[in-house]
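Re-run requested by the PI after the first attempt was lost when the workstation crashed. Everything re-entered from the original request form. Ligand of interest: S-adenosyl-L-homocysteine.
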Amino acid sequence: MSDQNAPLAVICAMAEEKSALKEHMSFMETHDLLGRTVTIGRLDGHDVVVAESGVGKVASAVTAALLAREFGCRGLVVSGVAGGLDPNLHIGDTIIAHSLVQHDYGHLHDTALTPFRPGIPPLGEHRRDYSFDLPPDLAGRLTRVAEEIALPDLPRDLLSPDAPTAHRRPDGLARRVLMGRILSGDQFINSETVRRRLHRDFAAQAVEMEGAAVAQVGALLGLPVVVVRCLSDLAGSESHLDFQRFVAAVAPGAAIVLRRIIREL
Ligand code: SAH
């Protein structure tokens, strides 16, 4: 990332996600940005400005653009929770995005959506290049770091066999940290049919509501964008229950991974 003295912008959609980071920050002061409280300080020796954007693509894109301009940020990071799409993943696993896609942007036909690159007028072949990808050198460095991160087990009471979740972690299985494709759209995914379709059509690991919108802002401003998401649910028919049950327990997982990768940014 460019000027190493400039701060990194960190965008969290929700309070739980921001407080998981704030507890590790020092030298904090706050700043109001169009009603958003921005916390300015240091995270493990790195200058950061952290904002709670609110949920969704517009809220996060506006926040990213404001932070980038107001603080001259050298990069944009999104940290928080997501729904898992890949059936091999479990609640508590964490994805670092090497590729980001707005899954609800494109031409809607009777049966399917043809995705396009957001923001490009609908002409020319480049519109089919719909994902925002990390530069290969950064992706390579993050892959190596991801392989070395170990996350603490989730609290046992959340994982008990009578827990109202269809997607229990097998006992003793270590939490995974891996690179993957993350989808963003203005919908909370609460359907097994949609989960399967998104996984199949986009070969993606997780779905959330902000990351690829911030990636579009980063592409416009020439800033790198890194998204880290810990799975709060598996986007299926019980995802609304799982989300409520796990959001506070898994949000720190994204913060742990972000703190490990920040020195690579
Ligand atoms: N607290 C809200 C829900 C927030 S929406 C409520 O009132 O119900 C879910 C948030 O977590 C979004 O910021 C999104 O990025 C992420 N997320 C987690 N699971 C998701 C899923 N299954 N589908 C889409 N986004 C999800």
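Saved to the shared folder this time. Helices lie at 15-22, 57-71, 136-148, 156-159, 192-202, 211-221, 239-261.
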